[in-house]
Design goal:
By secondary structure, the protein is an all-alpha fold. It has seven helices and no strands. It is flat.
Amino acid sequence: MQKRVKKKLVSLYTGELFAVFTFALIWILYIQLFEWSVPYLTSYQSLYAFALLEFILLQGSYYWYLKLKQVQQNDFTPLPGRQLRIFANFKRLNTGLIVIGMFVLIYQLNSKPIELYWFVFVFLFAVIEHINYYYVRLLSNDRRNKGIKAAKGLPEVKISKRIRKLFKIRRTNNGCNFLHGKGCL
C-alpha cells in the first residue's frame, strides 16, 4: 500500500512540476515560432495571467512534494502547522493576485485589446487551479485511486479545511484570535 501511495504522490508532484515547465516552454516556443502569437503572449496582461497560473501550479507541486516526503518517512498525518501556514499565506496571496487580475479583466473589457480572449483563458485557468487547490481538494476523486484514498491521512485532502482547523486551534491554545487579529501581540 505504501508503495502505491508513494508512486501516486511522485506522479502528482512530478506531473504538476512538468506542467509548469511544459507550459513555459510552449509559451516561449510559440513566441519564437509563430509571429501571429506575439501580441497575444507578450502583452503585460497575458504575462500576468500566465505568471499567476505558473505560481499556482508551483504551489500544487510543492504540496505534493511535502506529502511525498511525509510518506517516505512513514508519516500519514496532515501537514504540520508551519507548512499549513505557508499554504495559508499562498492562499491569501493568490486571492490578492486574482483580485488584481479581475481589475485587469475589467480594464481589458473596456478597452477590448486584441489579447483579451487569451488573457481570459489563461486567467480563468489560474482561477480554476486556485479553486481546485484551496476550496475543492488536492487529491482527485478518481475511483482508480482507492488505495490512496484508503491510506490514513490522504483521503480527499482539503487544504482549506486544514488551514481553518489550524487557525481555530491557535486561537484556543493561546487566546489569540488569529483570523481577526484581536488579542495578538
